[in-house]
Amino acid sequence: MPTEARPTQGTSGSVALVGAGPGDLGLLTRRAAELLGRCDVVVYDRLINDELLGLCPQARRVYVGKRVACHPVPQHEINQILVREGLAGRRVVRLKGGDPYIFGRGGEEARELAAAGVPFEVVPGVTSAVAALSYAGIPATDRTCAASVHFVTGHRRENGELGMDFDALARVGGTLVFMMAVSTTPEITRGLLAAGMDPSTPAAMVERGTTARQRRVDATLATVADASRDAGVASPAILVVGEVCALAETLDWYDKLPLRGLTVAVTRPADRMGTLTRHLRELGADVIEAPCIETRPVPSETLVGTIEGLREHAWVVLTSTVGVRCLFDALHCAGRDARWLAGVGVAAIGSATADELRRHQIEPDLVPDVFDGAHLAADIAARSRAGERVLLFRSAIGSPELSEGLVQAGLVVDDVACYETVLVGDAVDEHERARIEAGDALLVTFTSASTADGFAKAFPELDAANLPAVCIGPMCAAAARAHGFSCEVSARATIDSLVEAVVARWRELRGSMVPERP
User: Fold this and answer.
1) Quick check: helix, strand or coil at residue 177?
2) Per-residue exposure over 498-515, b if at least 16 CB sit within 10 Å of its own CB, e if not
3) Higher-scoring residue by pLDDT: 2, 51
4) 11: helix, strand or coil
5) Angle (nearest 5°) at CA 118 between 115 and 120
6) pLDDT score recorded for residue 472
7) Do the Cβ atoms of 273 and 451 come closer than 8 Å?
């Protein structure tokens, strides 16, 4: 955990009331991300996406989450925390689900800050009252059936009453959206029916809107309370009543995503999760991040001698993006730059490694058609003369098929470890670990043999036979099978191909599963 945040020298404290949005990370505003990236303290609620905290690793975290009838940190104490931290000269982000001012008590917090003379700003967030409907295929308004939309809190007042004017709500027409209404839905629907609203009016409950675990329960005003209860709908969820609900089946784009319903564990190193997890989430998957390996570069100073002798080689071979970064760090440490590679062939094992080279202004001379060590060795051998030297700049546990193939072709191989791969199963977040141990994951992805080894080590009690795996490359699959996983192998050793294989495997698996929607 971060150490105690200290006020930034020369700055006064301030508080930003920031809307975190409804759950989908992609709906966070740029201003919110900017403030999170430089705050000293983040004070956050229960319903925010925990991954947002990864945007502020430097900040001290203060959790003030609430549940129905459970307020471990009362609102007046939250107000005091914000005032105290602001007056202490710290930059504070008050991270609130949805929008701060839409049933978020942001107005109360802002008034306290203003009264105490603490500078503050408000960063609007995408409210679930709109976003959850959009993801569920329900437009808040539509010219054909809803000219207005009305947001109503489903919370009871302190005296236990709802305090709703049901007659006015029944007369107003349009779309009625009740937030925080899971426990009060029976009373709300009875009130609307008693006020004369048509029992057959379309209605829906949207649970965990905009997240991979979103569900929509379709019903009518007369049946939605029972349908939601029978489906086990839990907070957070919103109740929507109005003719627009009848459009859901036609306009539901989110449930049509190819990976909807899939919970998949991703085992890549934490600093390399981004591309794969983003692709999977864009296709509707719920991703459990379980980094089971870590890459640790060796000190660049120890590689200076290798860099000085690099030009004695016909080829320098890179087998990962990490290796490319280590190469250029070592070049810099040796007082060299990309020009030092002039006259040396540069080979990359695959497209990702090649792209990383291009980011350093180097166009690789060779990328095999099949992204593995055997094909890379064969292609280098075909372009080389016996006795030429090849420098492998890679992991300390690099695959032997590459070096052995080069040696068999009569080449002299210098296999230099520029980083080590360490199994770090204890790095998995406690919440994510609990989900895997509970059997939430329906699929796991492995991008190297070491990720399979690391995952097996991190979860020794897991029944691998009941968790299908999708792997990059035959060596990765061999390692996974050795631990008992049944494996599918992507057609090519690329993230895009791995994702395609996940889609294909999920299509096979879900055919035998009971649909989630009631």
Assistant:
1) strand
2) bbbbbbebbeeebeeeee
3) 51
4) coil
5) 105
6) 92
7) no
Q: State the Cα–Cα distance between residues 260 and 212, nearest whole angstrom.
A: 7
At residue 337, does pLDDT exceed 90? yes
Write out pLDDT tens, residues 339-387: 999 999 999 999 989 999 999 999 999 999 988 899 999 999 999 999 9
Using DSSP, state whether 345 is helix, strand or coil: strand
Catalytic residue among 40, 45, 99, 142: 45
**Residue 493 to residue 477: CA distance in whole angstroms:** 12
The structure tokens listed for 443 are: 């699929």
Give the integer Cα–Cα distance in Å for 99 and 296. 40
User: Whole-model pTM?
Assistant: 0.78
pLDDT > 70 fraction of the chain, expressed in percent and rounded = 95
Answer for the pair 433, 290: CB distance below 8 angstroms, yes or no: yes
CA distance 487 to 426: 24
Taking all residues of the chain, what is their mean pLDDT, rounded to a whole number? 91
Q: Is 299 helix (H, G, I), strand (E, B) or coil?
A: coil
Show contacts of 28-31: CB within 8 Å, 24+ apart.
28/52, 28/125, 29/123, 29/124, 29/125, 29/126, 31/123
Mean pLDDT for 407-424 is 93
Q: What one-letter code names the amino acid at 20?
A: A
- Please tell me the distance from the alpha carbon of residue 405 to that of residue 327, in angstroms, as a whole number: 23
Query: Bridge-partner residues for 122, per DSSP?
Result: 17
Tell me whether residue 66 is one of the annotated catalytic residues.
Answer: yes
Q: Is the dihedral of CA 141, 147, 151, 156 positive or negative?
A: negative
How sure is the predictor about 425, in pLDDT bands with cuts at 50, 70 and 90?
Answer: low
Question: What are residue 215's DSSP bridge partners?
Answer: 207
Is-catalytic flag, 45?
A: yes
Residue 462 has pLDDT above 50, yes or no: yes
First to last CA, the chain: 41
Residue-wise burial string across 166-181, b where 16 or more C-beta atoms lie within 10 A, e elsewhere:
beebbeeebbbbbbbb
Q: What is the mean pLDDT of residues 450-468?
A: 92
The one-letter amino acid at 142: D
Torsion of CA 327, 331, 332, 335, to 10 degrees: 170
Residues 6+ apart with CB under 8 A from 466: none
Residue appearing with tokens 């030429």? 388
Which pLDDT value is given to residue 79? 96
Q: Which residues contact 6 (CB under 8 A, 6 or more apart)?
A: 40
Percent of the chain with pLDDT over 90: 77
Q: Mean pLDDT, to the nearest integer, of 180-193?
A: 95
Determine the Cα–Cα distance for residues 343 and 93; give it in Å rounded to an integer. Answer: 53
